[in-house]
């Protein structure tokens, strides 16, 4: 049984190219682009895994926890937008009042 595992590993090593070999076949532009965006992709992966860890703390399954989080985020964004609109409206009203006050003088 152990020899079959060794044979399988040997066959895979012979058939699957080394990642460095694959990268050498890519165009220089693609390699440069991948190198330039590597830090951003790594950061995104770290954020993704941190998010998964946080979601896994919930008693819900991961998909339901993600759905609830997305709903909560949308509600927060909508609330923030409403608050910003109210602030803009108040600022416009104050500016009008100041302009009318300046005209009265």
UniProtKB/TrEMBL annotation:
It is found in: Mitochondrion inner membrane. Pfam families: CBP4. InterPro entries: Cbp4. Residues 65-97 form a coiled coil. One of its GO terms (cellular component) is mitochondrial inner membrane. GO terms for biological process: mitochondrial respiratory chain complex III assembly. It is a single-pass membrane protein. Keywords: Chaperone, Coiled coil, Membrane, Mitochondrion, Mitochondrion inner membrane, Transmembrane, Transmembrane helix. Belongs to the CBP4 family. Essential for the assembly of ubiquinol-cytochrome c reductase. It has a direct effect on the correct occurrence of the Rieske protein, core 4, core 5 and apocytochrome b. This is Cytochrome b mRNA-processing protein 4. It comes from Rhinocladiella mackenziei CBS 650.93. The lineage of its organism: Eukaryota, Fungi, Dikarya, Ascomycota, Pezizomycotina.
């Amino acid at each position: 049984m152990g020899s079959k595992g060794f044979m399988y590993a040997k066959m895979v090593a012979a058939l699957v190219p080394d990642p460095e070999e694959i990268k050498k076949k890519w165009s220089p532009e693609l390699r440069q682009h991948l190198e330039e965006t590597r830090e951003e992709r790594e950061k995104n992966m770290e954020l993704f895994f941190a998010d998964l860890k946080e979601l896994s703390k919930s008693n819900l399954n991961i998909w339901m926890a993600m759905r609830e989080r997305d709903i909560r985020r949308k509600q927060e964004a909508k609330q923030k937008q409403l608050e910003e609109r109210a602030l803009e409206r108040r600022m416009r009203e104050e500016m009008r009042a100041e302009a009318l006050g300046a005209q009265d003088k």
